[in-house]
Amino acid sequence: MNHTDLLTTPLFDLHTERGGKMVPFAGYAMPVQYPLGIMKEHLHTRDAAGLFDVSHMGQALLRLKTGLGDDDAHQKIAKAIETLVPGEIVKLKKGGLRYSVLLNANGGVLDDLMITRPFEEERQGELYLVVNAATKADDFALLNEKLAGLADLIELKDNALIALQGPKAAAVLEGVVSGVSTQTFMTARTYEWEGHQLAVSRSGYTGEDGFEISVPSSGARQFAESLLASDDVEPIGLGARDSLRLEAGLCLYGHDMTPETTPVQGNISFAIGKRRRAEGGFPGADQILRELAEGATKVRVGLKPEGRAPAREGVEIMSADGMQIGQITSGGFGPSAEGPIAMGYVDRDHSATGTKVHLSIRGKLQPASVVDMPFVPHRYYRG
Predict the structure, then answer these.
(1) Mind spelling out the 3-state secondary structure of the chain?
(2) Distance between the two ends of the chain, CA-based, in angstroms?
């Protein structure tokens, strides 16, 4: 495969040396799997710990132009970004992070992102953002345009991002970076390691306990190898990352959420803060608040096909009487769920758990049921 037209991450050589099968993804050469194979990589992450290179994602600091270092500074930067997202950022505690979404004027999702308030006093008035790879240029352009004059957006182009996920992730990382195991889910701290500053959040995209670690590119390979030195850690590619997040019922932007879907339709209303529901003040607020009050006309649901054939993205969802009521946005085989699973959008009248539907797969109608998500329980560490 010719990688010359693709961007690479600081761990590219590590992937190829370990037998990673490299594929194009969001403009980058990324490993889709290793010799272990997608199924075993998936199960290893659920049983022990998996290491993921997510350095293709966009990392940036949003920083007030003046007046850093106190709670007033945080209030200003939080209120600024709240003009673009529906999350509760003002009340975010020091060292806390929040999942949210950038919205367009119709309440459609432009991207989902993680927003972190730094723990350190001197960094109040700053927010650390992680956005999706395929949309990072548009996201950063939007932030620069809308918040010009108030804040500077500083892209962290010289930082890699590594995720360590699974029930043994905390023990492994604690052996390398002392103190991380006391962090709880959705908190972030900074640590010194081998002369490098690490930003460590207890979060991830698998439904498992785990961490995402921002590390300077110059130390990324050494840091990854220090984690891979443990027998409990295997490198994991995009294939297992996708099946893990699907089992966890988590959205993939551009598939399960788009500019044409709102957070209410996407079944991620938890991303809309309580105060924000009362006050509004974010793009598309009228539409989103109306859907919260009255219900959306369509909604993302979990689906469990009968039999063993997986239903992939694009498959039509049919009612019991043969009418098309929606479409699958993500689907495949769930190794831990031990069968095919899917998620997609259906009209509101067919969204209740237990509703019987049919999936049109290669011209045949396959029975399926609407089910609750996640397909496997989340195991986040809440202390």
Answers:
(1) CCCCCCECCCCHHHHHHCCCEEEEECCEEEEEECCCCHHHHHHHHHHCEEEEECCCCEEEEEEECCCCCCHHHHHHHHHHHCCCCCCCCCCCCCCEEEEEEEECCCCCEEEEEEEECCCCHHHCCEEEEEECHHHHHHHHHHHHHHCCCCEEEEECCCEEEEEEECCCHHHHHHHHCCCHHHCCCCEEEEEEECCEEEEEECCCCCCCCEEEEEEEHHHHHHHHHHHHCCCCEEECCHHHHHHHHHHCCCCCECCCECCCCCCCCCCCHHHCCHHHHHHCCCCCHHHHHHHHHHCCCEEEEEEEECCCCCCCCCCEEECCCCCEEEEEEEEEEECCCCEEEEEEEEEHHHCCCCCEEEEEECCEEEEEEEECCCCCCCCCCCC
(2) 45
Residue 57 CA to residue 9 CA, distance in Å, equals 10
What is the pTM assigned to this prediction?
A: 0.97
C-beta of residue 362 within 8 angstroms of C-beta of residue 310: no
CA angle 243, 157, 251 (to 5 degrees): 25
Residue 68 has pLDDT above 70, yes or no: yes
Q: For residue 238, which of 3, 38, 74, 98 has the smallest C-alpha distance?
A: 38
> Which tens digits make up the pLDDT trace of 328-345?
999 999 999 999 999 999
pLDDT for 1 beyond 90: no
What's the angle, vertex CA 91, arms to CA 88 and CA 97, rounded to 5? 70
Tokens of 101: 């979404």
* Mean pLDDT of the 223-250 span: 98
* Percentage of the chain modeled with pLDDT above 70: 99
User: What digits encode the pLDDT tens for the residues 80-98?
Assistant: 999 999 999 999 999 999 9
Residue 272: pLDDT band by 50, 70, 90 thresholds?
very high
Tokens of 192: 């010194």
Do 289 and 280 contact (CB within 8 A), yes or no? Answer: yes
- List, as own/partner pairs, every contact residues 176-184 make where C-beta atoms lie below 8 angstroms and the sequence separation is at least 24, other chains included: 176/223, 176/226, 176/227, 180/211, 183/211, 184/381, 184/382, 184/383
Q: What is the pLDDT of residues 259-271, one digit of tens each?
A: 999 999 999 999 9
